[in-house]
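A common beginner's mistake is to predict each chain separately and then try to dock the pieces by hand. The better habit, illustrated here, is to supply every component at once so that their relative placement is modeled jointly.
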Amino acid sequence: MLEIKNLHASVQKKSILKGVNLTIKPGEIHVLMGPNGSGKTTLGKVLAGSPNYIVSKGQVLFNHHDLLMLSPEERARRGLFLGFQYPVEISGVSNIYFLKAALNILRAQQGLKALDALDFKALIQKKLEILEMDESFLYRSINEGFSGGEKKRNEILQLLIFNPTLAVLDETDSGLDIDSLKHVAEGINQFHHKDNGLLLITHYQRLLNYVRPDYVHLFHDGKIKKSGDYRLVSHLEKLGYEKALTRELA
Amino acid sequence: MSNTLLKKMTRQAYPLGFTTAVESDTVRAGLDEEVIRLISRKKNEPSFLLTWRLNAYRHWQTMHEPSWSNLKLNPIDYQAISYYSAPKSKTDGPKTLQDIDPEILRAYNKLGISLEEQKHLSGVAVDAVFDSVSVWTTCKEILNEVGVIFCPFSEAVLQYPDLIKKYLGSVVPYRDNFFAALNSAVFSDGSFVYIPKGVACPIELSTYFRMNAANTGQFERTLIIAESGSSVSYLEGCSAPMRDNHQLHAAVVELIALDDAEIKYATVQNWYPGDEKGEGGVYNLVTKRGICRGKNSKISWTQIETGSAITWKYPSVILKGDNSVGEFYSVALTNNYQQADTGTKMIHIGKNTKSTIISKGISAGFAQNSYRGLVRVAPQASHARNYSQCDSLLLSDHCGAHTFPYIEVRNSSAKVEHEASTSTISDEQMFYFQQRGIDTENAISMIVNGFCKTVFSKLPMEFAVEAEKLLELSLEGCQG
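With all components supplied together, the output reads:
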């Protein structure tokens, strides 16, 4: 469903992505690990179409369409979801209003009828229970005054509501306590099935105790340096990125 | 806002800019005592009113346009304006809807306002003012039953001269300011509301002002009197055709609330704002003031200001009665080259008086948006309390938001709070919306609506939705 070929991108003339190649097929879970500043977050943002980055080279196919030609909202409407590392606060706009508007845009895209307030409430109730989130949370402004954990859970709530075909989750497991981590993992597992794809950007093995990846990639200096299966994670945890990389290069 | 988004900020749609072809009776341009006598004669006014008009005119001649506002306006040639224009009807004063020029009915239908009793918004009585005169008032029977008077101002002058004599100019005297003096001299029509003792007006009252004729000013006057223990909710809406030159609108509104009475006054102002280069548009120079004369009385102003090239208005409350309450909720949206200098005055005189000011200013394009507000606590106003909140939202790099709060406290037991904020929509916020499938235009309208929510919630239910739509419309073309 996703095919990234030799992708190069820069921000303010600084080259960040330097030839990324990655293919994700339906049903697969991929994990991207790597040191800070290696360009993992940039990859997520470039895929989602952030206007801050300039793609200088390469191609991305998403369900056989040229992804890079589409506006950010068009990418989202076609089923690409980015779980933000630092979800932005938007005051004055209530969560429920935002979620319902976005869902109904997606539904319109799929030729489905817009959900009214009651149907939407019923849908969201179940998702809230999975994440053990309080209903009051729906009536607060988007992410405003949310704790780090609440913001991350809100991203997973959106993942469950919008049900995209491909989700890129950028450090959704960072800064979570054990309970929150379990809820986030539970949400990811609820979301995942044989027809959708997941790209998890993470630093830690602990999320992977709950979510089992098919592929693990070591990302460094703007590209994937090494790929493997689940065992690569413990290898990385043991050695650290630097040693793992030098051994690789040696 | 990123530049690409900004570049798309070009056109503003104004769907209410049509003109209506009606035969009108328009007085020659220019202002002198003869014109004032003519207006007064056309309306068969009692002599006390003519005298009052002439006094106002003579006083006006000694005055100068105010220059303290943060507005740049072209000089107004007061001799080039016609001060009275009325559509000719088959008879003097229409008795039934059939007597009204069908073109006028069509114009109101286009504006979404039906003057036919069966079709009007349920629970709302409408007074329709077309240029200088009121053409029709609906729901008179329902109101008559409870003794509420809701009629054109000129009719009230003839039928209830004592009430007019007693209250006209009692809140805004003609000496008050340049534009109030001008209005007092030449005002042609408007609405009159009288709520008798203990009556809660059973339906919403509303006036729709339509400026049609070219080179004419609109000078209406509204007077609302709420007797002891009564209550009323009133809404005014306004629009005008698109014309190249600036049209002048100088209205005066006076509200009087006696013991335990409550008046809610809402405005949805959508006069023609001018084009994207700042050509044309209405000069909206308005004096609105209410007095909480009785104890425990309450006056609440809510305004949604999206139109006009220039908006100069400060709906105010004089809190004279003990325990009286004044409120001001405002959304002022300026786009392209629109300018607004608006706010309120809360004058605390009675004991334990309370006022709340919530002002939301939104600027886009090259617009300038100023909040100007005075909170004054008189020496005898012990335990007065004010809370003010002024928020500005900037949607472009070329617009401006300004806040001019004046606070004068002469009683040490007063508690006065003022909060202000200025915000923009960051690229990061915009991207968040887009990543969830919401395009920039919808994102802006969601943020703007969220920004204005506290004010919209003060509007009568039927109009809150209208206000949201109006805001979207006014921002159209502001983003791709």
